[in-house]
Design brief:
4 strands, alpha+beta
Length: 110
């Protein structure tokens, strides 16, 4: 399957890089690299994770893949593509995850 990053997910990844690179470029490269490798696996195994229980109220069937026990890659499968919707820091309030997905639902990534 083809994997597409939404603008919000791309911004999330850039923010992660920016935050960690101020402390250590090596650490930033490791974290961002781990996220990218995890996302690549979704091209071959898009249904490797269940629908995210925090997002079951949305019809899109959002799934999430946890990377490094800290980041959650929120994605959906639609029309033969995997759409990366958001990279969520699991240390944040889970209610913010729902708001991020709703923000994406108002764009072309429905």
């Amino acid at each position: 399957m083809v994997v597409e990053w939404t603008p919000n997910a791309t911004e999330d990844l850039a923010a992660i890089w920016k935050y960690y690179s101020l402390k250590s470029v090596r650490a930033a490269a490791g974290i961002v690299g781990n996220i990218r490798v995890a996302v690549l696996s979704l091209a071959d195994f898009p249904e490797m994770t269940p629908v995210d229980p925090l997002l079951t109220r949305f019809a899109a069937g959002y799934r999430s893949l946890v990377v490094r026990r800290t980041y959650k890659v929120v994605y959906k499968i639609e029309n033969g593509r995997v759409y990366i919707m958001e990279i969520f820091d699991c240390r944040r309030n889970p209610a913010e995850l729902r708001m991020g997905v709703m923000k994406d639902r108002t764009t072309k990534w429905k």
